[in-house]
Amino acid sequence: MTNLNKNMLITLGVKDVEKSRNFYVGLGFEVNLDGWTADFEMEGVRVSLCKMNKLAEDVNVYNPPEIVTGFTGMTLAYNLDSKEAVDEFYAKVQELGGTVEHTPEKAAGWNGYHFYFRDLDGHYWEIAY
User: How many angstroms separate the CA atoms of 29 and 40, rounded?
Assistant: First the structure.
């Protein structure tokens, strides 16, 4: 059987691939532009930015899913090496036009420090230490 823990690809539907690409590059991600998508690698995970309508058509060309906005019940999380790194990331998110859901704070229920933000297309991210 294939090792399911080997690789993971997360695709985020976006309105403007180039604009979203620039946002993530500004946050420090190394992005490779590949035609109508932009991909960036993380240890064991690859995240791809894809134009929203193209992604919906890829799911089902005959009956694409409805494109919705708001909270979908999913968040992405990125862990950093220190509280200071979280604070620096927080400042970059604000500078680049992300929407902060709450400022960095001690996490309730676990011994950590984190904040949440939404990227340019409303995808929720948790940045934590």
Answer: 7
Asked if 13 and 67 touch (Cβ cutoff 8 Å), the reply is: yes
Integer angstrom CA distances of residue 118 from 3, 17, 25, 61, 115: 32, 16, 16, 28, 11
| pTM (predicted TM-score) | 0.87
Separation of CA 44 from chain center: 15
What is the structure's pLDDT at 102? Answer: 95
pLDDT tens-digit profile of 71-92? 888 999 999 999 999 999 999 9
Q: Which of 56, 53, 19, 57 is nearest to 38 (CA)?
A: 19
Burial of 84 (0-12, 13-18, 19+ CB in 10 A): exposed
Secondary structure element (H or E) that encloses residue 78, with its range? strand 76-79
Query: How far apart, in whole angstroms, are the C-alpha atoms of residue 103 and residue 116?
Result: 8
- How do residues 6-59 score in pLDDT, each as one tens digit? 678 899 999 999 999 999 999 999 887 767 789 988 777 889 999 999 999 999
